[in-house]
Automatic annotation (TrEMBL):
Cellular component terms per the entry's GO annotation: nucleus
Protein name per UniProt: DEAD/H (Asp-Glu-Ala-Asp/His) box helicase 11
InterPro entries linked to this entry: ATP-dep_Helicase_C (IPR006555), DinG/Rad3-like (IPR045028), Helic_SF1/SF2_ATP-bd_DinG/Rad3 (IPR014013), Helicase-like_DEXD_c2 (IPR006554), P-loop_NTPase (IPR027417), RAD3-like_helicase_DEAD (IPR010614), Rad3/Chl1-like (IPR013020)
Similarity field: Belongs to the DEAD box helicase family. DEAH subfamily. DDX11/CHL1 sub-subfamily.
The species this protein was found in: Scophthalmus maximus
Disordered, as annotated region: 1-33
Annotated localization: Nucleus
UniProt keyword annotation of Nucleus present: yes
PANTHER family attached to this UniProt entry: ATP-DEPENDENT DNA HELICASE DDX11-RELATED, DNA REPAIR DEAD HELICASE RAD3/XP-D SUBFAMILY MEMBER
Principal subcellular localization: nucleus
Xref: Pfam families: DEAD_2, Helicase_C_2
Domain Helicase ATP-binding: 1-167
Length: 677
């Protein structure tokens, strides 16, 4: 009875304390918002929604309409999603459940069309992976500590508990990176290398396995929206000169986190002193991202199944990354909700791993899959795919990692390009397997004089290091080819050096004279020594069946290579009247298993040349044939141009109709024919 009475008195004391006024920092209650966005008014949003549903508009037109109706284009289009019959959006928004839910996109009973789906598996893995750096841990810990200190009198006890749990997890992540809470960073040993953990082992390593991440995410991150609040808190007080620390801060708490903060600051300073320009760009990008958003994403990633992912710890760069190994778990929900899913793309081959990794693993039966593939619109004679097994001097082309660095192999590649530039007019695009090999072989050509010989036939361009320089380079490349087509000087066009998987291997169109020949040097296999790729191969070998005598991991490596090749060589043929040659420089392309992974419309027309002579003759034959065709088109164009002039002189409506028709014909002519006129 005495114990019950004591507990009852304690509860009454707590109630009385809660009724007492708060301290000075918390007297003022949150008042109503003083200002709201003038473009976020319900009536105006509904008005613009109706306008959006009435006509098809692009982004620029929506922005103009938003100014006219004084409403927000973003929220108006979101209101238009439920009644819309067709919604066009980035497929990342469809594949990520949280983003899909936030945008109000409902998939149940719908038909989903995913275009350019050749990298669907990589996209799923990317958007469901998460990475945290030491600098982000530093900022997240600092911001959350200051936020809790400033509003501790307003925050509920349960919310303070969640904040302390988050701070505890951050400290655990620091321990995984090699830091020690409360120790001087100068006395800590510097570790290097890469470590791979399962999710459970990673939680044990950081001593955070006792934290219920599901509860922290659902009860605090999602309900309180702390990531957004903390972003606004930082924007409000950062750089304002207001001290966020109060005198009541516990000295014990300061001592406990002092070593952690010093260690995190060393991580931040080490990352901010990157010598190259790329590092500074990445640092700026990192600072623009909310660290709490990144932390929330990493927490969500850690709630995946233990077998579906791995945690990669980069000790030398002070970063932790969650790597998703099974993208089918996230694609399965899309397949389950939708009435039908159409997965389309121009370079989907090879599709075997795609079906196995994304469809069969998601529980889709073979009877539900309908596969359709069609040919290309161009005539068969408009494309010349060649597999080149040896060069002009008879040197066998074997660009394996052991042989490609030899001076003999690089000299032979230079001779091949020189011969191609002699017979192919316009633009030639040469793809190398990596940036490192591109720099190495170009440096060798500079020293040997091969680059000078190439420059005597075509002006040389190289893929820029910065993405913002790409548009300017392509404009100069195009203008150079047009000038060379009109000028009968020594230059016959331009030669562009690019890299597979780089800035020009996807999304760039080298149509007509911009890409009369595409040269692929070697086979762009990914780096199999990468710990992440090795873990992916191990996962596939364990969970996927063998096919064709090869392990699933080996098949994935080959498929990644050939998908990159198909994307690169597909840059050239862009319309019905286009023509181009494709030269695959490596004897390994002649293997039947490799040829079968080319697009059908290319594979059926591919010729394998064991010596260079037949390949050179075929390239020359194509040049002569289409040169005669272009001459005929030029004479016809000149004739129509003279008729056009006569129509301008003659009066009458028929003459005007003829002028309009001919002007349209001129507009649809190729740049080469228009320049010749």
């Amino acid at each position: 009875e005495e114990l019950k009475r004591q507990k009852r008195e304690e509860r009454l004391e707590m109630i009385r304390n809660n009724k007492q006024p708060h301290e000075e920092g918390a007297k003022r209650k949150r008042g109503p918002a003083k200002s709201v966005c003038p473009y976020n008014k319900a009536l105006a949003l509904r008005q613009m929604r109706d306008e959006v549903l009435g006509t098809v508009s692009d982004i620029e037109q929506l922005l103009k309409l938003g100014r006219e109706t004084h409403s927000c284009p973003y929220y108006s289009t979101r209101l238009a999603i439920p009644p819309a019959q067709l919604v066009v959006l980035p497929y990342q928004m469809v594949l990520h459940e949280a983003t899909r839910r936030a945008a109000g996109v409902q998939l149940k009973g719908q038909v989903v069309i995913i275009d350019e789906a050749h990298n669907l598996s990589d996209t799923l893995s990317c958007i469901h992976s998460a990475e945290l750096t030491g600098a982000q841990l530093c900022r997240a810990h600092s911001q959350l500590t200051q936020y809790a200190e400033r509003y501790k009198s307003r925050l509920k006890a349960k919310n303070l508990m969640y904040i302390k749990q988050i701070l505890f997890v951050i400290e655990g992540l620091v321990r995984v990176l090699g830091g020690k809470v409360g120790s001087n960073p100068q006395s800590q040993t510097t570790q290097t290398g890469t470590e791979m953990f399962t999710i459970n082992n990673f939680l044990f390593k950081g001593q955070i396995d006792n934290i219920n991440l599901f509860k922290v995410l659902q009860k605090y991150f999602e309900k309180s929206m702390i990531s957004r609040k903390l972003g606004g808190f930082v924007e409000k007080y950062a750089g304002s000169g207001v001290s966020l620390h109060t005198p009541s801060t516990s000295n014990k708490e300061n001592r406990r986190t002092e070593g952690l903060n010093r260690y995190l600051q060393t991580l931040q300073s080490n990352q901010s002193t990157a010598p190259d320009q790329q590092g500074s760009v990445e640092a700026e990008k990192e600072l623009s991202v909310s660290p709490m958003m990144q932390l929330e994403g990493f927490f969500k990633a850690l709630t995946n199944s233990n077998t579906d992912g791995r945690v990669v710890v980069q000790l030398n760069s002070s970063s932790v990354k969650f790597l998703l190994l099974n993208p089918a778990v996230h694609f399965a929900q899309v397949l389950k909700e939708c009435r039908a899913v159409i997965i389309a793309g121009g370079t989907m081959q090879p599709v075997s791993d795609f079906k196995q990794e994304l469809l069969f693993s998601a529980g889709v039966g073979e009877e539900r899959i309908t596969e359709f593939s069609c040919g290309h619109v161009i005539p068969p004679e408009n494309i010349l795919p060649l597999v080149l097994c040896s060069g002009p001097s008879g040197q066998e082309l074997d660009f394996t990692f052991q042989n490609r660095d030899s001076p003999t192999m690089m000299d032979e590649t230079g001779r091949i390009l020189s011969n191609i530039c002699n017979v192919v007019p316009g633009g030639v695009v040469c793809f190398f397997p990596s940036y490192e090999y591109s720099r190495q072989i170009i440096s060798h050509w500079e020293a040997s004089g091969a680059l000078t010989r190439l420059a005597n036939k075509k002006k040389i361009f190289q893929e820029p290091k910065k993405a913002n320089q790409l548009e300017q380079l392509l404009s100069e490349f195009s203008r150079c080819i047009q000038r060379c087509a009109l000028d009968s000087g020594g230059l016959t066009g331009a030669l562009l050096f690019s890299v597979v998987g780089g800035k020009m291997s996807e999304g760039i169109n080298f149509s007509d004279d911009l890409g009369r020949c595409v040269v692929m040097v070697g086979m762009p296999y990914p780096n199999i020594k990468s710990p992440e790729l090795q873990e992916k191969m191990t996962y596939l070998d364990k969970h996927m069946p063998r096919s064709g005598g090869r392990s699933p991991g080996q098949a994935m490596i080959e498929n990644l290579c050939m998908k990159a090749v198909n994307q690169s060589i597909g840059r050239a043929i862009r319309h019905r009247g286009d023509y181009s040659s494709i030269v695959l420089c490596d004897r390994r392309y002649a293997r039947p298993a490799t040829l079968s992974k080319l697009p059908t419309w290319i594979k059926d027309r591919t010729s394998t040349c064991t010596t260079f002579g037949p390949a050179f003759a075929a390239l020359r034959k194509v040049r002569i044939k289409f040169k005669n065709v272009q001459l005929i088109h030029t004479f016809v164009h000149l004739f129509l141009y003279s008729v056009h002039i006569m129509f301008l002189v003659l009066p009458g409506k028929k003459a005007e109709a003829g002028v309009i028709l001919l002007l349209r014909a001129q507009q649809t002519s190729s740049p080469f024919l228009h320049g010749a006129t």
